[in-house]
Amino acid sequence: MGDARRVSRRSVVKAFPAVGLAAVSGGFLGARRAAAASPSFPQPPVSTARSLPGGVSPVLEQTFDVRFTDVSVPGYGRITTRTYNGALPGPTLRVRGGQTLRLTHINGLPPNPPHTGGHNTPHHPNSFNVHTHGMHVSPSGIADNVLREFAPRTQDEADAGVPEPRYLTVIHVPADHPAGTYWYHPHLHGALAEQVVGGMAGVIVVEGDVDEVSEIKAAADLVVCINELKVEDGKVPAFTSNGWLAGIRSTFAVNGAVNPTLRLRPGEVQRWRLVAATAFTELRLQVTGRRGSLPLHQIAQDGVTFARPVSRNALDLAMGNRADVLVRGAEPGTYELRAEGVPVPLMTIEVTGEPVEPQMKLPDSLPQGRPFLDERDIDNPDADREVIFHADHGVFPGPFPNAFRVLGTGATPAADPDGDLRRDPAYGLFDPGYVNHTLRLGAVERWTVRTDESVPAHSHPFHLHTNQVLLTHRNGRRLDPPVWHDTIGLTGGRPGESATFLVRYEDFTGRSMAHCHQLQHEDLGMMQNVDYVEG
Ligand SMILES: [Cu+2]
Q1: What distance in angstroms lies between residue 23's CA and the mean position of ligand 1's atoms?
Q2: I need a surface site. Which of 64, 145, 320, 438 has the fewest CB within 10 A?
Q3: Each residue's pLDDT tens digit, 79-137
Q4: CA 229 to ligand 1 center in whole angstroms
Protein backbone atom coordinates (compact mmCIF):
# COMPACT_ATOMS: atom_id res chain seq x y z
CA MET A 1 0.00 0.00 0.00
CA GLY A 2 1.32 3.47 -0.80
CA ASP A 3 5.00 3.94 -1.26
CA ALA A 4 6.43 1.86 1.56
CA ARG A 5 10.11 1.69 0.80
CA ARG A 6 12.52 -0.86 2.04
CA VAL A 7 15.97 0.25 3.12
CA SER A 8 18.85 -1.13 1.15
CA ARG A 9 21.36 -3.38 2.90
CA ARG A 10 24.03 -0.76 2.47
CA SER A 11 22.16 2.04 4.21
CA VAL A 12 21.26 -0.29 7.07
CA VAL A 13 24.90 -1.14 7.70
CA LYS A 14 25.75 2.55 7.61
CA ALA A 15 22.90 3.39 9.96
CA PHE A 16 23.81 1.08 12.82
CA PRO A 17 26.95 2.74 14.22
CA ALA A 18 25.20 6.12 14.15
CA VAL A 19 22.26 4.75 16.06
CA GLY A 20 24.58 3.33 18.68
CA LEU A 21 26.39 6.63 19.13
CA ALA A 22 23.23 8.68 19.29
CA ALA A 23 21.68 6.36 21.83
CA VAL A 24 24.77 6.33 24.03
CA SER A 25 25.44 10.05 24.05
CA GLY A 26 21.78 11.00 24.31
CA GLY A 27 21.07 8.34 26.89
CA PHE A 28 23.87 9.63 29.06
CA LEU A 29 22.61 13.17 28.81
CA GLY A 30 19.07 12.12 29.67
CA ALA A 31 20.18 9.94 32.55
CA ARG A 32 22.39 12.66 33.99
CA ARG A 33 19.63 15.28 33.90
CA ALA A 34 17.16 12.95 35.54
CA ALA A 35 19.66 11.72 38.12
CA ALA A 36 20.24 15.22 39.44
CA ALA A 37 16.77 15.26 40.90
CA SER A 38 15.34 11.75 40.91
CA PRO A 39 17.69 8.80 41.08
CA SER A 40 14.90 6.22 40.90
CA PHE A 41 12.54 7.88 38.44
CA PRO A 42 12.71 6.08 35.08
CA GLN A 43 13.43 7.94 31.83
CA PRO A 44 13.31 6.38 28.35
CA PRO A 45 16.68 6.28 26.56
CA VAL A 46 17.36 9.43 24.52
CA SER A 47 18.48 9.77 20.91
CA THR A 48 19.88 13.00 19.52
CA ALA A 49 20.94 14.19 16.10
CA ARG A 50 24.54 14.30 14.95
CA SER A 51 26.28 15.87 12.03
CA LEU A 52 27.05 13.55 9.16
CA PRO A 53 30.00 14.12 6.83
CA GLY A 54 28.84 16.36 3.98
CA GLY A 55 25.40 16.67 5.51
CA VAL A 56 23.68 20.04 5.44
CA SER A 57 22.08 19.70 8.83
CA PRO A 58 22.31 17.17 11.66
CA VAL A 59 20.35 13.94 11.38
CA LEU A 60 18.79 11.91 14.15
CA GLU A 61 19.02 8.27 13.17
CA GLN A 62 17.01 5.76 15.13
CA THR A 63 16.22 2.14 14.45
CA PHE A 64 12.97 0.76 15.85
CA ASP A 65 12.99 -2.99 16.15
CA VAL A 66 9.33 -4.01 16.46
CA ARG A 67 8.43 -7.52 17.63
CA PHE A 68 6.62 -9.30 20.44
CA THR A 69 8.73 -8.94 23.57
CA ASP A 70 8.40 -10.17 27.12
CA VAL A 71 8.64 -6.89 29.03
CA SER A 72 8.85 -6.26 32.74
CA VAL A 73 6.61 -3.41 33.87
CA PRO A 74 7.77 -2.52 37.39
CA GLY A 75 4.80 -2.38 39.73
CA TYR A 76 2.73 -4.60 37.45
CA GLY A 77 4.61 -7.67 36.24
CA ARG A 78 5.56 -9.18 32.92
CA ILE A 79 3.61 -8.73 29.74
CA THR A 80 4.14 -10.00 26.23
CA THR A 81 3.47 -7.21 23.79
CA ARG A 82 4.58 -5.47 20.61
CA THR A 83 7.37 -3.06 21.52
CA TYR A 84 9.82 -0.60 20.07
CA ASN A 85 13.27 -1.98 20.87
CA GLY A 86 12.04 -4.29 23.60
CA ALA A 87 10.78 -1.60 25.98
CA LEU A 88 7.91 0.73 26.64
CA PRO A 89 7.68 3.54 25.95
CA GLY A 90 10.06 3.78 22.98
CA PRO A 91 13.19 5.94 23.02
CA THR A 92 12.81 9.71 23.37
CA LEU A 93 13.85 11.52 20.18
CA ARG A 94 15.37 14.95 20.89
CA VAL A 95 15.58 17.03 17.76
CA ARG A 96 15.79 20.73 16.83
CA GLY A 97 14.17 22.75 14.07
CA GLY A 98 16.20 22.36 10.88
CA GLN A 99 17.27 18.80 11.71
CA THR A 100 16.08 15.58 10.13
CA LEU A 101 14.58 12.44 11.63
CA ARG A 102 15.75 9.33 9.84
CA LEU A 103 13.85 6.40 11.29
CA THR A 104 14.22 2.76 10.31
CA HIS A 105 11.50 0.35 11.40
CA ILE A 106 12.19 -3.38 11.35
CA ASN A 107 9.02 -5.43 11.28
CA GLY A 108 9.80 -8.60 13.23
CA LEU A 109 6.14 -9.38 13.94
CA PRO A 110 4.53 -12.62 12.75
CA PRO A 111 2.56 -12.75 9.47
CA ASN A 112 -0.85 -11.07 9.57
CA PRO A 113 -3.85 -13.33 10.11
CA PRO A 114 -6.19 -13.45 7.09
CA HIS A 115 -8.82 -10.69 7.04
CA THR A 116 -12.27 -11.14 5.60
CA GLY A 117 -14.16 -8.18 7.11
CA GLY A 118 -14.47 -4.71 5.65
CA HIS A 119 -12.04 -1.83 5.75
CA ASN A 120 -13.58 -0.46 8.95
CA THR A 121 -13.08 -3.58 11.02
CA PRO A 122 -9.77 -4.34 12.74
CA HIS A 123 -7.22 -5.86 10.40
CA HIS A 124 -3.48 -6.32 9.83
CA PRO A 125 -2.54 -6.20 13.54
CA ASN A 126 1.08 -7.01 12.66
CA SER A 127 1.47 -4.20 10.14
CA PHE A 128 2.08 -0.64 11.27
CA ASN A 129 3.59 2.69 10.20
CA VAL A 130 4.57 5.82 12.12
CA HIS A 131 2.90 9.13 12.94
CA THR A 132 4.74 12.07 14.55
CA HIS A 133 1.71 13.32 16.46
CA GLY A 134 1.39 17.11 16.53
CA MET A 135 4.40 17.88 14.39
CA HIS A 136 4.09 20.31 11.51
CA VAL A 137 5.89 18.19 8.92
CA SER A 138 5.14 16.72 5.52
CA PRO A 139 2.40 14.05 5.45
CA SER A 140 3.63 12.76 2.07
CA GLY A 141 6.14 10.32 0.59
CA ILE A 142 8.24 8.62 3.24
CA ALA A 143 7.64 11.36 5.84
CA ASP A 144 4.70 11.49 8.29
CA ASN A 145 2.56 9.46 5.90
CA VAL A 146 0.05 7.27 7.71
CA LEU A 147 -1.17 5.74 4.44
CA ARG A 148 1.98 3.64 4.25
CA GLU A 149 1.98 0.07 5.55
CA PHE A 150 5.03 -1.52 7.14
CA ALA A 151 3.97 -5.13 6.59
CA PRO A 152 5.61 -8.14 8.21
CA ARG A 153 6.89 -11.08 6.20
CA THR A 154 4.27 -13.37 4.78
CA GLN A 155 4.33 -16.95 6.00
CA ASP A 156 5.96 -18.01 2.72
CA GLU A 157 8.68 -15.39 3.11
CA ALA A 158 9.29 -16.40 6.71
CA ASP A 159 9.47 -20.08 5.71
CA ALA A 160 11.94 -19.22 2.94
CA GLY A 161 14.17 -17.31 5.40
CA VAL A 162 13.65 -13.92 3.74
CA PRO A 163 15.10 -11.24 6.08
CA GLU A 164 12.69 -9.21 8.17
CA PRO A 165 11.62 -6.11 6.22
CA ARG A 166 12.98 -2.65 7.04
CA TYR A 167 11.15 0.58 6.29
CA LEU A 168 12.74 3.99 6.11
CA THR A 169 11.02 7.22 7.22
CA VAL A 170 12.68 10.61 6.63
CA ILE A 171 11.12 13.69 8.21
CA HIS A 172 12.59 17.18 7.83
CA VAL A 173 11.71 19.33 10.83
CA PRO A 174 11.19 22.93 9.67
CA ALA A 175 13.75 25.41 11.05
CA ASP A 176 10.97 27.43 12.72
CA HIS A 177 9.14 24.41 14.20
CA PRO A 178 7.74 25.26 17.66
CA ALA A 179 9.92 23.85 20.44
CA GLY A 180 8.00 21.52 22.70
CA THR A 181 6.70 18.02 23.41
CA TYR A 182 5.29 15.72 20.74
CA TRP A 183 4.99 11.96 20.45
CA TYR A 184 5.09 9.12 17.97
CA HIS A 185 2.98 6.02 17.60
CA PRO A 186 1.85 3.68 14.84
CA HIS A 187 -1.15 4.89 12.81
CA LEU A 188 -2.24 2.11 10.47
CA HIS A 189 -6.03 2.20 10.18
CA GLY A 190 -7.44 -1.04 11.57
CA ALA A 191 -4.40 -1.87 13.73
CA LEU A 192 -3.85 1.29 15.71
CA ALA A 193 -5.72 0.69 18.98
CA GLU A 194 -4.28 -2.77 19.64
CA GLN A 195 -0.72 -1.55 19.12
CA VAL A 196 -1.03 1.62 21.22
CA VAL A 197 -2.66 -0.16 24.20
CA GLY A 198 0.23 -2.60 24.01
CA GLY A 199 2.68 0.24 24.61
CA MET A 200 3.87 1.28 21.14
CA ALA A 201 4.44 4.98 21.76
CA GLY A 202 7.35 7.29 22.48
CA VAL A 203 8.13 10.94 23.02
CA ILE A 204 9.59 13.51 20.63
CA VAL A 205 11.15 16.63 22.12
CA VAL A 206 11.74 19.55 19.78
CA GLU A 207 14.40 21.67 21.47
CA GLY A 208 14.53 25.43 21.06
CA ASP A 209 13.86 28.89 22.47
CA VAL A 210 11.72 27.88 25.45
CA ASP A 211 14.57 25.72 26.79
CA GLU A 212 16.76 28.83 27.06
CA VAL A 213 14.45 30.67 29.48
CA SER A 214 16.71 30.83 32.54
CA GLU A 215 14.14 29.49 35.03
CA ILE A 216 13.35 26.59 32.67
CA LYS A 217 16.98 25.91 31.85
CA ALA A 218 17.67 25.53 35.57
CA ALA A 219 14.90 22.94 36.01
CA ALA A 220 15.35 19.19 35.59
CA ASP A 221 13.75 18.22 32.27
CA LEU A 222 11.69 15.05 32.73
CA VAL A 223 9.56 13.05 30.34
CA VAL A 224 6.33 11.80 31.96
CA CYS A 225 4.92 9.50 29.30
CA ILE A 226 1.61 8.01 30.44
CA ASN A 227 0.88 4.77 28.58
CA GLU A 228 -2.56 3.20 28.94
CA LEU A 229 -2.12 -0.58 28.73
CA LYS A 230 -4.95 -3.08 28.30
CA VAL A 231 -3.56 -6.38 29.48
CA GLU A 232 -5.19 -9.68 30.39
CA ASP A 233 -3.25 -12.83 31.31
CA GLY A 234 -0.04 -11.03 30.46
CA LYS A 235 -1.07 -10.03 26.93
CA VAL A 236 -3.12 -7.52 24.98
CA PRO A 237 -6.14 -9.48 23.71
CA ALA A 238 -6.68 -9.46 19.93
CA PHE A 239 -9.30 -6.96 18.72
CA THR A 240 -11.93 -9.48 17.67
CA SER A 241 -15.21 -7.90 18.69
CA ASN A 242 -16.83 -4.62 19.60
CA GLY A 243 -16.70 -5.64 23.28
CA TRP A 244 -12.96 -6.23 22.86
CA LEU A 245 -11.79 -4.63 26.07
CA ALA A 246 -15.02 -4.46 28.04
CA GLY A 247 -14.12 -5.32 31.59
CA ILE A 248 -10.36 -4.98 31.20
CA ARG A 249 -9.26 -2.20 33.49
CA SER A 250 -6.58 0.09 32.12
CA THR A 251 -3.12 -0.17 33.60
CA PHE A 252 -1.38 3.20 33.50
CA ALA A 253 2.39 3.14 33.30
CA VAL A 254 4.56 6.24 33.61
CA ASN A 255 7.77 5.81 31.63
CA GLY A 256 7.16 2.05 31.65
CA ALA A 257 6.54 1.62 35.39
CA VAL A 258 3.34 1.55 37.43
CA ASN A 259 3.43 4.30 40.04
CA PRO A 260 7.15 5.12 39.98
CA THR A 261 8.53 7.54 42.55
CA LEU A 262 10.01 10.90 41.67
CA ARG A 263 11.94 13.03 44.15
CA LEU A 264 11.67 16.78 44.35
CA ARG A 265 13.43 19.02 46.87
CA PRO A 266 11.51 21.73 48.70
CA GLY A 267 11.91 24.86 46.59
CA GLU A 268 13.14 22.92 43.55
CA VAL A 269 11.37 23.46 40.20
CA GLN A 270 11.13 20.60 37.69
CA ARG A 271 9.76 20.62 34.16
CA TRP A 272 7.51 17.68 33.42
CA ARG A 273 6.65 16.84 29.83
CA LEU A 274 3.25 15.18 30.36
CA VAL A 275 2.21 12.96 27.46
CA ALA A 276 -1.23 11.29 27.38
CA ALA A 277 -0.22 8.30 25.24
CA THR A 278 -3.66 6.84 25.93
CA ALA A 279 -6.23 5.32 23.58
CA PHE A 280 -9.39 5.27 25.69
CA THR A 281 -9.10 7.51 28.71
CA GLU A 282 -9.10 11.25 29.19
CA LEU A 283 -6.95 12.32 32.11
CA ARG A 284 -7.89 15.05 34.58
CA LEU A 285 -4.57 15.34 36.40
CA GLN A 286 -3.85 16.70 39.86
CA VAL A 287 -0.90 16.48 42.24
CA THR A 288 -2.32 16.00 45.72
CA GLY A 289 -0.91 15.23 49.13
CA ARG A 290 -1.84 15.39 52.77
CA ARG A 291 -0.33 18.86 53.00
CA GLY A 292 -2.35 20.14 50.06
CA SER A 293 -1.83 20.04 46.34
CA LEU A 294 1.06 21.16 44.16
CA PRO A 295 -0.07 23.52 41.42
CA LEU A 296 0.85 22.69 37.85
CA HIS A 297 2.30 25.76 36.14
CA GLN A 298 1.49 24.98 32.53
CA ILE A 299 3.93 26.46 30.00
CA ALA A 300 2.80 24.66 26.82
CA GLN A 301 -0.10 22.72 25.31
CA ASP A 302 0.44 20.16 22.55
CA GLY A 303 3.99 21.37 21.96
CA VAL A 304 3.22 25.08 21.65
CA THR A 305 4.58 27.41 24.34
CA PHE A 306 2.23 29.86 26.06
CA ALA A 307 2.98 33.59 26.35
CA ARG A 308 3.14 33.13 30.15
CA PRO A 309 2.70 30.24 32.59
CA VAL A 310 -0.85 29.37 33.66
CA SER A 311 -1.26 27.89 37.15
CA ARG A 312 -3.75 25.07 37.43
CA ASN A 313 -4.83 22.78 40.21
CA ALA A 314 -6.24 20.34 37.65
CA LEU A 315 -5.13 19.81 34.07
CA ASP A 316 -7.20 18.04 31.40
CA LEU A 317 -5.44 15.89 28.84
CA ALA A 318 -7.51 14.06 26.25
CA MET A 319 -6.04 11.05 24.51
CA GLY A 320 -3.02 12.31 22.57
CA ASN A 321 -2.64 15.68 24.35
CA ARG A 322 0.60 16.87 25.92
CA ALA A 323 1.26 19.58 28.47
CA ASP A 324 4.59 20.93 29.67
CA VAL A 325 4.34 22.01 33.29
CA LEU A 326 6.64 23.43 35.93
CA VAL A 327 6.19 21.99 39.41
CA ARG A 328 7.81 23.35 42.55
CA GLY A 329 8.43 21.31 45.69
CA ALA A 330 6.59 22.71 48.70
CA GLU A 331 6.10 21.20 52.17
CA PRO A 332 8.09 17.96 52.53
CA GLY A 333 5.94 14.85 52.30
CA THR A 334 4.39 12.41 49.87
CA TYR A 335 2.26 13.61 46.98
CA GLU A 336 0.60 11.72 44.14
CA LEU A 337 -0.06 12.47 40.49
CA ARG A 338 -3.62 11.26 40.10
CA ALA A 339 -6.11 11.12 37.27
CA GLU A 340 -9.75 11.56 38.21
CA GLY A 341 -11.59 8.24 38.05
CA VAL A 342 -8.38 6.17 38.08
CA PRO A 343 -8.22 4.33 41.42
CA VAL A 344 -4.44 4.22 41.75
CA PRO A 345 -1.85 7.00 41.52
CA LEU A 346 0.01 7.44 38.23
CA MET A 347 3.17 8.34 40.12
CA THR A 348 4.32 9.28 43.60
CA ILE A 349 6.23 12.47 44.32
CA GLU A 350 8.42 12.58 47.42
CA VAL A 351 9.19 16.15 48.39
CA THR A 352 12.30 15.53 50.40
CA GLY A 353 15.93 16.48 50.97
CA GLU A 354 17.78 19.72 51.53
CA PRO A 355 15.56 22.71 50.65
CA VAL A 356 16.70 24.83 47.73
CA GLU A 357 17.24 28.33 49.12
CA PRO A 358 16.24 30.72 47.87
CA GLN A 359 13.55 28.68 46.14
CA MET A 360 13.87 28.33 42.37
CA LYS A 361 11.88 30.87 40.38
CA LEU A 362 9.08 30.45 37.88
CA PRO A 363 9.29 32.54 34.70
CA ASP A 364 6.95 35.50 34.28
CA SER A 365 6.87 35.39 30.51
CA LEU A 366 7.72 32.88 27.79
CA PRO A 367 8.64 32.95 24.10
CA GLN A 368 5.17 32.25 22.70
CA GLY A 369 5.38 29.23 20.38
CA ARG A 370 3.06 30.46 17.64
CA PRO A 371 1.33 33.78 16.98
CA PHE A 372 -2.46 33.64 17.29
CA LEU A 373 -4.85 33.73 14.36
CA ASP A 374 -7.79 36.10 14.31
CA GLU A 375 -11.34 35.71 12.97
CA ARG A 376 -10.54 38.60 10.61
CA ASP A 377 -8.02 36.29 8.92
CA ILE A 378 -10.79 33.92 7.78
CA ASP A 379 -10.83 33.66 3.99
CA ASN A 380 -14.45 32.71 3.48
CA PRO A 381 -16.69 32.96 6.56
CA ASP A 382 -19.50 31.23 4.66
CA ALA A 383 -17.35 28.16 4.35
CA ASP A 384 -17.10 27.23 8.02
CA ARG A 385 -16.64 23.51 8.49
CA GLU A 386 -18.69 21.60 10.99
CA VAL A 387 -17.75 18.10 12.08
CA ILE A 388 -20.06 15.95 14.21
CA PHE A 389 -19.07 12.74 15.95
CA HIS A 390 -22.02 10.37 15.94
CA ALA A 391 -22.43 6.66 16.73
CA ASP A 392 -25.25 4.39 15.57
CA HIS A 393 -25.63 1.09 17.33
CA GLY A 394 -26.62 -2.25 15.85
CA VAL A 395 -25.93 -1.28 12.23
CA PHE A 396 -23.84 -4.22 11.08
CA PRO A 397 -24.19 -7.99 11.53
CA GLY A 398 -21.26 -9.75 13.17
CA PRO A 399 -18.86 -8.83 15.94
CA PHE A 400 -18.62 -5.07 15.12
CA PRO A 401 -22.22 -3.85 15.03
CA ASN A 402 -21.69 -0.13 15.70
CA ALA A 403 -21.08 2.62 13.15
CA PHE A 404 -18.73 5.33 14.46
CA ARG A 405 -19.40 8.16 12.04
CA VAL A 406 -18.00 11.62 11.30
CA LEU A 407 -20.89 13.69 9.94
CA GLY A 408 -21.29 17.32 8.87
CA THR A 409 -19.17 19.11 6.25
CA GLY A 410 -17.57 16.71 3.81
CA ALA A 411 -19.08 13.58 5.36
CA THR A 412 -18.48 10.38 3.41
CA PRO A 413 -21.63 9.93 1.26
CA ALA A 414 -24.29 7.37 2.16
CA ALA A 415 -24.52 4.12 0.20
CA ASP A 416 -28.26 4.85 -0.09
CA PRO A 417 -28.95 8.59 0.34
CA ASP A 418 -32.72 7.98 0.32
CA GLY A 419 -32.60 5.18 2.86
CA ASP A 420 -32.40 5.18 6.64
CA LEU A 421 -29.09 6.96 7.26
CA ARG A 422 -28.84 5.53 10.77
CA ARG A 423 -28.54 2.07 9.19
CA ASP A 424 -26.35 3.12 6.27
CA PRO A 425 -23.12 1.09 5.92
CA ALA A 426 -21.05 3.93 4.41
CA TYR A 427 -22.42 7.29 5.60
CA GLY A 428 -19.78 9.21 7.56
CA LEU A 429 -17.43 6.24 7.77
CA PHE A 430 -13.81 6.25 6.66
CA ASP A 431 -13.39 5.56 2.96
CA PRO A 432 -9.73 5.47 1.89
CA GLY A 433 -10.72 6.56 -1.61
CA TYR A 434 -12.82 9.59 -0.62
CA VAL A 435 -11.44 13.05 0.16
CA ASN A 436 -13.62 14.58 2.87
CA HIS A 437 -11.89 17.98 3.02
CA THR A 438 -9.82 19.74 0.35
CA LEU A 439 -7.79 22.38 2.17
CA ARG A 440 -5.90 25.13 0.33
CA LEU A 441 -2.50 26.20 1.57
CA GLY A 442 -2.52 29.71 2.96
CA ALA A 443 -6.25 29.74 3.74
CA VAL A 444 -7.53 30.41 7.26
CA GLU A 445 -10.73 28.58 8.11
CA ARG A 446 -12.98 28.07 11.10
CA TRP A 447 -14.17 24.62 12.15
CA THR A 448 -16.63 23.63 14.83
CA VAL A 449 -16.41 20.06 16.08
CA ARG A 450 -19.32 18.66 18.02
CA THR A 451 -20.25 15.41 19.69
CA ASP A 452 -23.76 14.08 20.06
CA GLU A 453 -22.51 11.19 22.16
CA SER A 454 -24.75 10.31 25.09
CA VAL A 455 -22.61 7.35 26.25
CA PRO A 456 -20.25 8.66 28.97
CA ALA A 457 -17.57 6.10 28.11
CA HIS A 458 -17.39 7.35 24.52
CA SER A 459 -15.20 10.43 24.40
CA HIS A 460 -14.35 11.61 20.90
CA PRO A 461 -11.21 13.77 20.90
CA PHE A 462 -10.72 15.48 17.53
CA HIS A 463 -7.22 15.28 16.04
CA LEU A 464 -6.03 16.97 12.85
CA HIS A 465 -2.72 15.93 11.31
CA THR A 466 -0.06 18.28 9.91
CA ASN A 467 -1.40 21.68 11.07
CA GLN A 468 -1.94 22.95 14.61
CA VAL A 469 -5.37 24.42 15.34
CA LEU A 470 -6.18 27.41 17.56
CA LEU A 471 -9.00 26.59 19.98
CA THR A 472 -11.05 29.80 20.33
CA HIS A 473 -14.39 28.66 21.79
CA ARG A 474 -15.79 25.91 23.99
CA ASN A 475 -19.56 25.49 23.71
CA GLY A 476 -19.74 28.89 22.06
CA ARG A 477 -17.89 30.62 24.88
CA ARG A 478 -14.69 32.40 23.91
CA LEU A 479 -11.40 31.36 25.49
CA ASP A 480 -9.11 34.18 26.57
CA PRO A 481 -6.44 33.60 25.51
CA PRO A 482 -7.09 31.00 22.80
CA VAL A 483 -4.92 27.85 22.96
CA TRP A 484 -3.06 26.01 20.21
CA HIS A 485 -3.87 22.29 20.06
CA ASP A 486 -3.51 19.32 17.77
CA THR A 487 -6.05 17.25 19.70
CA ILE A 488 -9.22 18.63 21.32
CA GLY A 489 -11.07 16.59 23.93
CA LEU A 490 -14.85 16.14 23.55
CA THR A 491 -16.10 14.23 26.53
CA GLY A 492 -18.64 11.41 26.20
CA GLY A 493 -22.05 11.75 27.81
CA ARG A 494 -22.29 15.46 27.00
CA PRO A 495 -24.21 15.57 23.73
CA GLY A 496 -23.99 18.99 22.13
CA GLU A 497 -20.54 19.74 23.49
CA SER A 498 -18.59 21.68 20.91
CA ALA A 499 -15.22 23.24 20.24
CA THR A 500 -14.43 25.92 17.67
CA PHE A 501 -11.00 26.49 16.21
CA LEU A 502 -9.17 28.52 13.59
CA VAL A 503 -6.54 26.92 11.40
CA ARG A 504 -4.21 28.07 8.65
CA TYR A 505 -3.05 25.32 6.30
CA GLU A 506 0.66 25.85 5.84
CA ASP A 507 3.70 24.58 3.98
CA PHE A 508 2.84 20.97 3.16
CA THR A 509 0.61 19.45 0.49
CA GLY A 510 -0.63 15.87 0.48
CA ARG A 511 -3.12 13.45 1.95
CA SER A 512 -3.54 13.63 5.68
CA MET A 513 -6.10 12.76 8.34
CA ALA A 514 -8.71 14.14 10.70
CA HIS A 515 -10.12 11.64 13.18
CA CYS A 516 -11.37 10.70 16.60
CA HIS A 517 -8.47 9.90 18.94
CA GLN A 518 -10.41 7.25 20.83
CA LEU A 519 -8.43 4.73 18.85
CA GLN A 520 -10.99 1.92 18.84
CA HIS A 521 -13.40 4.36 17.17
CA GLU A 522 -10.72 5.33 14.67
CA ASP A 523 -10.06 1.70 13.71
CA LEU A 524 -13.80 1.23 13.22
CA GLY A 525 -14.10 4.17 10.80
CA MET A 526 -14.27 7.46 12.73
CA MET A 527 -11.75 9.12 10.42
CA GLN A 528 -11.68 11.43 7.40
CA ASN A 529 -9.21 12.11 4.60
CA VAL A 530 -8.01 15.65 4.20
CA ASP A 531 -6.10 16.75 1.12
CA TYR A 532 -3.83 19.76 1.49
CA VAL A 533 -3.46 21.39 -1.94
CA GLU A 534 -1.64 24.42 -3.36
CA GLY A 535 -3.67 27.60 -2.75
CU1 LIG B 1 -14.60 8.54 19.09
Answers
A1: 36
A2: 438
A3: 999 999 999 999 999 999 999 999 999 999 999 999 988 899 999 999 999 999 999 99
A4: 18
